[in-house]
Amino acid sequence: MKTKIALLSLLGLLLCGSALADVYSLDQLLELARSGNRGLQASRDAVEAARSGVTTAGAFPNPEIEYQSGDAKARVAGANPGNVKTMTFTQRLDLPWVRSARIDAASANLEATSAAGRGYEHEVLASVKLGYYEVLRRQAELKAAQEDQALMEAIRTRVSVRVGVGEAPRYELIKADAELLNAQKVTQSTLLRLTQAKAALRRNVGTGLPADFEVPATTQLPLNVGSLPELRQTLLQRSPDLAQARAQLTQAEHQLDLQRRMRTPEVALKASSDEEPDLKTSRVGIAVTIPLWDRRSGPVGEASANLSRARNLLEQMEFGLGQALENAYQQHQIAAAQVNALEQGIVRQAEAALKVAESAYRFGERGILDYLDAQRVYRAARNELIAARYELRAAAVDIERLTGALTAPAQEEKH
């Protein structure tokens, strides 16, 4: 009895809180994630840093000015002591072919960082959609569990009356009590799973989503995702993961080109002026860095290995994403078939059998065990339908994530 009272109190608090909580649709949750998710903001900061890197790559080297001053002392007869000054100006030349390669490498890094940001955004939005559908699933399970509990309470009351007047044996009341306790336990567990699902969804959306929120209940399911060949073509064209891998490959190519061009000797213009007590000397010349000991074999080899690595990763990703898309498509087809079978046949038949068993029990034609068995079959079929709907939605989200179709909320329709 204490457990029952505690459970009813918990459910009452939940219902009161639900009445006061703000309701967020899927579109609103996705928009909140775009604006409030700190991970997305960090990825945008990384893009800005890479954009500044392009500016840095295009900057010309600053000149160097060196000034020295001292005293000259006569050590031989006839020498003039006095103040000595030296000023030197050095300007390193930015060779055009090296400069262009450096800018190209920085631009490729910007593109790779932008592609990584888009890929991360797709991952976040996919997590939000999955979290939203997880909350819908747990809400449906909680509603079903509450209905089961209310039904078992009514059955228990009815059985108690029949046992009290001697129309039913004592074991029927024991069985009804056990079923009621089990229904209460299921309701408690489902309520905790709903709380956990909401916490996970809020973690993905960000701090813009209040701790106390609700999502509208719906039975809508995703539209047809299309054929597998069409999805494969979309994958190759729009996949954010492939876009990132291709950008990283281009970046590695430009980096290798830059390291090879940097083998060219560096050249700097130099001008100096020396003032002695009796002389003033001016000089103009060039300084050339001779690549005698360091031929940049290390940086070139590293860039070459990174290029090979990027090329192999791109090929592996194309194959892996293709297999993942095929698996997601097959999962979607299986889940769609399960939803159709459950909605059109199994659940309806189980519900009809439950009604027949209930009527037979009321008129004394069947015992409580037959009625509870029928109810158990219906409950299992209904829970399978709830799970199948979630699996169908999850497979559709996985397909959207792989093919890069999460830039806008997916359209939905009722089955």
From TrEMBL:
It comes from Azospira oryzae. Keywords: Signal. Residues 1-21 form the signal peptide. Transmembrane segments: none annotated. SUPFAM superfamilies: Outer membrane efflux proteins (OEP). This is Cobalt-zinc-cadmium efflux system outer membrane protein. The keyword Signal applies. Belongs to the outer membrane factor (OMF) (TC 1.B.17) family.
